[in-house]
Design a protein that fits this description.
Strand content: 15-25%
Strand order of the largest sheet: 7-8-11-10
Oligomer: single chain
Length: 309
């Protein structure tokens, strides 16, 4: 445990505690140590409430007139720990069963079964989901319309997991020379955070998951990341426009909710069957496609060396 993060208030009473407070502190310290050892969750103590951005792991009431003591953890650290725990479960399952598994931020979608569920007091939750569709021969594929927000996000996570599970080579950043050429067209957008990935889960085309661009394994990523002469074309600009739009609309979840339920039924069926997907059919569902096309066309027209294809 990081004792430097225990507040002066706690340290003072550790040095000269009353019997009742000493018991509370001992219980709180033991709890934090157990969180560190068992759940790998960084934990520190302070008078309640926990600081903004932190998660309250447990509250210890003090009946001797002293304020309650809280075991706190960084909200970001807690989310990362929960997700890593779910990732480890999935990794173990893939190694032992040689079957697909992915991480959902809520319940597993239809056709998937929860292997383990990890959550904290702040409402963060990650579920390791195994593919059980081959065990449900009479499973009926439904479309996405009418699903709740959480169900829709779970189905979107399934799509992204499908793309990730068929990657060809490691993700690549947008080359610096292209970032320099494009920064004036995308002011404020973190071009250095873009990841470019080839995947066999796409039969053709590209798909943007905000700052991650997935493309069919047909040479597009190689064109953009050529170490000697990386090139810009309208397709790359189109994907970056989507990433920029995602950020402008308030982040990934809002971006997904705005369009994903309109995914064509045939694409959804291919997804559930773990079959390659045509990215153009995904784009068909996105209401902002005309905006992305027009903006990419306009930038390409004014950008020296931009390829139309």
């Amino acid at each position: 445990m990081d004792y430097w993060r225990i507040t002066t208030w706690v340290l003072t009473f550790l040095m000269s505690p009353s019997p009742l407070l000493a018991d509370t502190l001992q219980d709180a310290l033991a709890y934090c140590q157990s969180q560190q050892a068992e759940a790998a969750t960084p934990c520190h103590l302070q008078p309640c409430p926990c600081n903004p951005g932190n998660v309250t792991l447990k509250r210890f009431e003090e009946t001797g007139g002293n304020p309650p003591l809280c075991a706190c953890a960084s909200g970001l650290a807690s989310r990362q720990t929960l997700r890593q725990q779910a990732v480890e479960v999935c990794n173990d399952y893939r190694r032992s069963q040689h079957q697909p598994c992915f991480i959902s931020r809520s319940d597993c979608p239809r056709g998937f079964e929860a292997l383990a569920d990890f959550s904290d007091a702040a409402g963060n939750r990650f579920t390791a989901c195994r593919d059980s569709r081959n065990e449900q021969q009479h499973f009926q594929v439904a479309n996405l319309r009418g699903l709740s927000r959480d169900e829709l996000l779970a189905q979107y996570d399934l799509l992204v997991s499908h793309l990730e599970s068929h990657l060809v080579g490691p993700p690549k950043p947008l080359p610096e020379s292209l970032r320099v050429a494009l920064i004036g067209y995308f002011p404020g957008f973190a071009l250095d955070r873009l990841s470019l990935m080839s995947t066999q889960a796409l039969s053709q085309g590209c798909f943007s998951d905000c700052n991650r661009i997935f493309c069919a394994d047909n040479g597009q990523i190689a064109l953009w990341t050529d170490p000697d002469h990386p090139r810009i074309n309208r397709n790359l600009l189109h994907q970056i426009v989507h990433g920029n739009r995602c950020e402008q609309e308030g982040g990934r979840e809002r971006f997904v909710i705005n369009w994903f339920e309109h995914l064509p039924d045939d694409v959804y069926q291919h997804l559930l069957a773990n079959e390659p997907i045509d990215a153009d059919r995904i784009h068909f569902a996105m209401y902002m496609e005309s905006h992305a096309n027009n903006r990419a066309e306009n930038i390409c027209r004014h950008l020296p060396g931009c390829l139309k294809e």
